[in-house]
Amino acid sequence: MGICLSQQVKAESPFSCGTEVNSRNVSEDGTQMSNWSSKASSFSMSRTPRSEGEILQSSNLKSFTFGELKTATRNFRPDSVLGEGGFGSVFKGWVDEQSLAASKPGIGIVVAVKRLNQDGWQGHKEWLAEINYLGQLRHPNLVKLIGYCLEDDHRLLVYEFMPKGSMENHLFRKGSYFQPLSWGLRMKIALGAARGLAFLHSAETKVIYRDFKTSNILLDSNYNAKLSDFGLARDGPTGDKSHVSTRVMGTYGYAAPEYLSTGHLTAKSDIYSFGVVLLEMLSGKKAIDKNRPTGEHNLVEWAKPYLTNKRRIFRILDVRLEGQYSMGRALKVANLAIQCLSVDPKLRPNMDEVVITLEQIQDSKDKSDNDQKDSQLNLHVHPSNGPRYCRKSAEEAPGMIAYPRPSASPLHA
């Protein structure tokens, strides 16, 4: 896709902002702690790294001063907050499109500024991993990191602004602003996210995402999916190694069973998580929800028996999608989810195969005429060119938080 990795990132980030270390200590191979690069200093997990030398050099990133980001966000005013989480807050800001210098509100381009809490050393590790991955990786389905600030105890990250917020918001939040996503948009987002993961898993990149979930899939104005939050990402196994041994981290409900039980991390761990998200898209239900009836708290456990039977699949399909899909297409997506959720990781497809399957489903002639109802959700269908998605800026809904609230649940085995 014309994307190249300028320098392979080597990092171990066992902590996630807003998460806790798994209460069950899975043995971690200390040798997996690899050097950042010849351009960066190595550091021990026993102390808090504070040097800018730990950041991989990248011509893609701008180093901001804290004063510049104060100006860009109007001194981090409360009404500039786009989202909040355990690591801190995300603020809306403005920078000049060419120089990236801080500008006044409404002038230049909108950016999202993530500011870490100053009293958390775990957040620094995630912050550093985020820079060292997104500073090197470029792909249409990865969120773009514009720059960072490392000044005294201040730790900030500056990203492209994603007006439609997160997939999680659109699937699970109720309200007039977050309208239910149509079948067409869900499949578009699934394909985009799959392409992002396929890029990470490619032979050139070899990165395991480790925290694939709906809140980490961000959407631009045209509902193009981009993966965000690389604080838990890991380099994949090299040489004759089959896996990476690491402490179990991530979000409960999305982690692969073999990873939970052994701490062995592979690209197939991400594919299981993709299957969970695909199931959430089909059902409109969260992976874990204790407010559901007994026996339905865990979405995967509850839904699996219904996915293989075309007479019972209606039990799990989101009622808000009624009339927007053909049964043939729904069964194909359900079958893909089943494959991704296989207990045996060897039986799961790789991400390239997932992308091909989703492309075939999207291009399938087995379309229901009712798919045209996508136009009700800002989707205009041109028979000759396929779906075209209209721009609708978040500025049209002042006061509404379109950006995801940064959410990361602790993973307990």
UniProtKB/TrEMBL annotation:
Key words of the record: ATP-binding, Cell membrane, Kinase, Membrane, Nucleotide-binding, Plant defense, Serine/threonine-protein kinase, Transferase
Per the record, the domain of life is Eukaryota
Q: Which GO terms describe its cellular component?
A: plasma membrane
EC annotation from Swiss-Prot or TrEMBL:
2.7.11.1
Q: Tell me which Gene Ontology terms the entry assigns under biological process.
A: defense response
Composition bias (Basic and acidic residues) maps to 363-374
Annotated region (Disordered) at 17-55, 363-413
What is its subcellular localisation? Cell membrane
InterPro entries in alphabetical order: Kinase-like_dom_sf, Plant_Ser_Thr_Prot_Kinase, Prot_kinase_dom, Protein_kinase_ATP_BS, Ser/Thr_kinase_AS
Query: Which positions in this protein are listed as binding ATP?
Result: K114
Major localisation? membrane
- Which GO terms of the molecular function aspect are on file? ATP binding; protein serine/threonine kinase activity
Q: Does the keyword Transferase apply?
A: yes
Q: Where is the composition biased (Polar residues)?
A: 19-48
Family of this protein: Belongs to the protein kinase superfamily.
- The name of this protein is non-specific serine/threonine protein kinase
**What broad taxonomic lineage does this protein's source fall under?**
Eukaryota, Viridiplantae, Streptophyta, Embryophyta, Tracheophyta
